Amino acid sequence: MSDLDRAIAQLRACRPIPEPQVRELCYKARELLIEEGNVVGVDAPVTVRIHTIPALRLALMNGLQICGDIHGQFHDLMELFRVGGDVPETNYLFMGDFVDRGFYSLESFLLLLCLKVRYPDRITLIRGNHESRQITTVYGFYDECLRKYGSANVWRYCCEVFDYLALGALVMGASNTLGTSTSTSTNESGTQLTEEEEIEIEILNSAGDVMSRIPRSMAASSDNHETVNSSPLSETSRGAPARSGPVGTGATSDSLGSVGNPGGAVLCVHGGLSPLVETVDKIRLLDRKQEVPHEGPMCDLLWSDPDEIEGWGLSPRGAGFLFGADIVKLFNHRNNLSLIARAHQLVMEGFKEMFDASIVTVWSAPNYCYRCGNVAAILELTEDGSNGGYIPRANGDVNRTGDLLGPVAAGGQISGPGRRYRVFEAAPQDSRGMPAKKPVADYFL
Amino acid sequence: MPASRPEIKAPRPRLPLLNPSNNHTFIQPTKRINDGQDIANFLTSEAYHDIVTFLMQLNASMFPTVIPTPEGEKNHIQTWEAGTNAVVFSNTVLKLKVLLEDLEGIIAEAPPDQGPRRFGNISFRKWYQIVESRLPELLKRNLPAQVRSFHQDGQDETSPVIELESYLLGAFGSAQRLDYGTGHELSFLAFLGGIWKLNGFATTDPGVEERGIVLGVFVPYLSLVRRLIKTYSLEPAGSHGVWGLDDHSFIPYILGSAQLSPPITKLEELPSEGSLPGAPDPAAVVKALIVERERHRNLYFDAIGFIYDVKKGPFWEHSPILYDISGVPGGWAKINKGMIKMYNAEVLSKFPVVQHFPFGSLFQWQQDPHAMPPPVSAHISSQPARASPSSAQAGYASAREPVQEGTRAPWAQPTSMGRPPMAATAAPWSRHPDRTGLGTGSTHNRGIARDVDAQAQSSGDIVGTRAPWAK
Q1: Of A78, A236, B22, B78, which sees the most CB atoms within 10 A?
Q2: A7 within some domain
């Protein structure tokens, strides 16, 4: 067992690793992260389904799980891995805010960092607004490090890593449809139906049972899928079979016609857009290796929020901006994106799609701050199996403005990828024993 | 229980009253703390001195009191629990109680919105607007006449009520951000202190009217605030997460620990150790049954009880600072003293908390000539500096109030809605001396310094953490 594996095992048990080890880990992580671009290219991996052997299914279910804020809720992060599938079998993309507010920022962040160093291609970490020196001194991570190590060294090492985290990620080649469900339990008799239905959105509970399934025809007409019943009985307008045949066989067809497959890429960023960033390429040009500035494009990407406004608005957070549907749609169109996935805002239901599903907020900290009573969610994307599994990639560059007049111009919007949300609640807490009281602050000496 | 080292002290200061026969010019209070550097000015201002004096005055009044009895008989110990008959409420206290009840009644007119929401409920804005519109009338009805007409000869002069209104309106959380924190609590303290300065409270022996203020006004204020927090899901204002003392409150921990401290004979002799005989053990905060029993009479346990009401999870995990404090040897007096030091450092000295506190004629920005110079400490210098003028943003300004839940930038300037104080209950570790490196000055200011041991006041903070752009 390597040192790294030992560290992973120790952190999985929620025990911090010694300071020298943190130092080494952070050094390795920086070496790794420095090689990443500001916008990491991530492929939506193939989801292999073996329907006949349910026991194997979970192990092979290696889609890409996109996760929102964690905020030091370590036990809930473990629950997230349980729900989404373990590393390295499952690929993960975390959209920042690993630290602050919770009790286990340190354990959570170090575990994610260990996994990143151990499985660099399986884990993508991008920066949140809390991955900053100034914010962590105000919102708790700094206090936590001092308390757990007695000095600020570990906090300092972590902050140095923060400066190297990517600002965004582009998920390429995500399938437009979920095709059939991977759920076994509920809909056995109705499987034929789902085969014929182009499932755009699927909501699963933490046990993997389908709670709700929304075909594209309905998802397109309704932004509020909570109201959509889970039995998708409505006739789909297209009779084509789902494009989810065995990967590599070419047994799938592109039923979306001119709104072709593969759809646009999915941009993942912690906060949102910036008035100073019109294209994804602009993000690539930033000098990211620094503390998060108070303003400017890098700040906005980590701080902004979508809102029901037109254009840009002042953010009540004092950093970043508010941006409306028009901004998102123009940006997606201009950059050939089908969706922006972001985190940054608590959503009681765990995720929230806005603006005709052109942007989604994913929130992965259940019962946030021990009190909000919210559920959490992660978003699973799977690889498009059409075209024999071939996905044109331009080394992460999707700013193919020349292509825009093709599929997009007609609808104005690329149809979104198939989105599977796994919703989960806070981990049970009975098993956590009460620790010894620590020495108090000097106020009380 | 007598203090181990009797000290000769001057009588405990009370907040001085303004003389109604002197001319006094009232002004609309305005924000003066614009960046981290202004904290040093605040800590030597008249306002700071008055706030601290008033808080210490309330604190001392809550210590149990030894009632002398004829010689030979056992002294009677009078405690000051919530609900005790031993505290008689003055007219002013009763009126303010009514005022708070009226404010609470307005909740029924602004029921929480049932629509989709993030966390904070937007109907709080409606409550706030109704309060704002009715406040002049409510204050007219519930403030003593001598306060409302405090030396006003000219008709067009600014009324003292304008100043009080400003503090009262700032005491219930931010309608814009749908949050509540210690900055708002501070604003209520200033509201009460303002009435005090304007001779609004009864003239009594030291401690008597103060106890009425705590049990008759402050306790109902806390219950109103808690109802607001629960009804509208107000979030913690700028909190250190689990590493802060409490998501929303601080003062109840000061006053509540005073209630359980050893009895005293004179207000000026506050013990720094020990507990009231029979007081619940500080460690009882993790015992739900004891908390439930004590919360109805003690402010400390009342605050703990509220945490249990709103939080799910192990106490030591969601409230580790309170958990550790529950193991402090030295009893409730020790905890009381520590809380006061911590309040000074983590509330009054923190830019995010006090930045929106408005200064007028009652609480003056003007320097206190007797104040000790503030320490040149890393703590103060590492306060966030003013954000560079975001003129770029002004052009995008949108008039509507966004629904918002989440982290605010600590350098945030108020956007549209005037004066919502942003609060932060902070963890004590941020001032631990072992990483000072530079400037271990001490925060010895008048007022709190009298109650605080010099040695424990190291105030170095977060060396090396200043953001590169901080001025």
Answers
A1: A236
A2: no
B114-164, pLDDT tens digit by residue?
876 667 899 999 999 999 999 999 999 999 998 988 876 666 667 899 999
Question: Which tokens in the block code for residue B438?
Answer: 């530079």
What global pTM score does this model have?
0.80
Cα angle A189-A195-A199, degrees, rounded to a multiple of 5? 110
Flag whether residue A142 sits within 8 Å of chain B, measured between CB atoms.
Answer: yes
CB distance from B352 to chain A under 8 Å?
yes
Window A:346-375, CB contacts with B under 8 Å: 346-348, 367-372, 374
- Say which residues have a Cβ less than 8 Å from residue B239's Cβ, sequence separation at least 6: A101, A139, A140, B181, B247, B424, B425
Q: How many residues does chain B have?
A: 471
What's the CA gap between A318 and A167, in Å, rounded?
20
Of the candidates B328, B434, B462, the beta carbon closest to that of A142 is on B462
- Picking from A303, A311, A441, the nearest residue to B429 by CB comes out as A441
Q: Is residue A438 part of a domain?
A: no
User: Under an 8 A CB cutoff, do B324 and A439 touch?
Assistant: yes
A376 neighbors A69 (Cβ within 8 angstroms):
no
Distance between A314 CA and the closest CA of chain B, angstroms: 5
B179 inside 8 A of chain A by CB:
no
Distance CA B438, CA B378 (A): 7
Of B317, B409, B424, the CB nearest to A103: B317
CB A271 within 8 A of CB B409: no
Tell me whether A96 touches chain B (CB under 8 Å).
Answer: no
For A31-53, letters b (16+ CB in 10 Å) and e give: eebeebbbbbbbbbbbbebeeee
CATH code of the domain in which A355 resides: 3.60.21.10
Q: What is the pLDDT of residues A147-205, one digit of tens each?
A: 999 999 999 999 999 999 999 999 988 877 776 544 444 444 544 444 456 788 999 99
Q: How far apart are CA A100 and CA A135, in angstroms?
A: 8
Q: Which two tokens stand for residue B177?
A: 């951000």
CB A331 within 8 A of CB A266: no
CA pair distance A264, A308, nearest whole angstrom: 24
- What span, in angstroms and rounded, lies between the C-alpha atoms of A130 and A96? 8
Number of domain units in chain A: 1
Helix axes B182-197 and B219-232, enclosed angle (nearest 10): 150
A vs B: CB pairs below 8 A: 239
Residue A11 included in any domain: no
ipTM: 0.78
Rounded-to-10 torsion of CA B127, B130, B136, B141: -80
Report the residue of chain A nearest B319, measured CA to CA. A103
Domains of chain B, by residue range, sit at: 30-375+405-465
**Average pLDDT for B78-92:** 96
State whether A309 and B177 contact (CB < 8 Å). Answer: no
User: Which residues of A are tagged catalytic?
Assistant: 130
> How remote is the C-alpha of B146 from its chain's centroid?
26
Cβ distance B456 to A443 under 8 Å? yes
Q: Which residue of A has its CA nearest to B239?
A: A139
Answer yes or no: is pLDDT of A257 > 50. Answer: no
Chain A residues with CB-CB distance to B310 below 8 A: 371
Which residue(s) pair with A340 in the sheet?
A267, A359
* Chain A closest-CA separation from residue B252 CA (Å): 17
Please give the residue range of the domain that contains residue A383: 21-432
Residues ≥6 apart with Cβ < 8 Å to B460 = B377, B378, B379, B431, B433, B435, B436, B437, B438, B439, B440
Q: Which two tokens stand for residue B86?
A: 């031993």
The structure tokens listed for B365 are 């920005």
Are A130 and B407 a contacting pair at CB < 8 A? yes
